[in-house]
Amino acid sequence: MGNLLLLAAIGAFFYWIFKSYAKYTTYSKEAFKNFSVSKESLQKSELGLFIALVAKVAKADGRVDALEAELVGIMFDDISAVFPEPHKTKDILKEIFNEHKNRSHDLREIALTLGNTIKRDKNKQHQFMGFLIQLAFIDGEVSKSEEEVLASIAEALRFDPNAYHAIFDKFEKMVHNIKPKANINDAYKILGVNESDDMNTIKKAYRKLIREYHPDIIKSQGKDDAYMQEATAKTQEINQAYEMIKAHRK
């Protein structure tokens, strides 16, 4: 009887550890229901540190282009939705992003802090690094400065170099295989609009599609690299169509 009670106690203890660990390895409202939202707490959180690195990658080539800005804005919505007080959280995330996009001296420090936080979670390392690579490729090419920033982050995160190059090469191959639309009619079809629609209508359709197909760091949990590649390819296709229509109407 004593042994049974001991086994039951041990089982309950390990179940409690599993539940506690699982709570912090999944980004959900349940996981963050007791999170006290403040700039200090968000800056120290995994997702806050990630946003700081997103800012540095986005600005690595000297500017945050329109599509990057659109995707980063949607990312703020995705991330803030799992925290209490989403509107307050979103405002703080924007503040963190804007502070870090113009600072490069603390890149390694931020990456090391995030790396230490997630060092036992290979899935999170892969998820974060994959999204940063995806962001660099979203405009169709990766500049030398972006590549240097990505490499510095990967090293600080102690991310497997082979895994890094595998992800990078997959995105590079995918981008090269995306063909620009041959004609303006295809561009209108992709956005689901008519040639007679005004630019405000077309812009709304574009933004709706970008929001629908963008790579979502929250929903990507547990999914493989194919999810990010498909989302990136679709996002680029939508953006190419929109840019073609804009150029055609000048």
UniProtKB/TrEMBL annotation:
J domain span: 186-250
Tree of life domain: Bacteria
SUPFAM superfamilies xref list: Chaperone J-domain
Protein's name according to its UniProt entry: Molecular chaperone DjlA
Species this chain originates from: Sulfurimonas xiamenensis
Phylogenetic classification of the source organism: Bacteria, Pseudomonadati, Campylobacterota, Epsilonproteobacteria, Campylobacterales
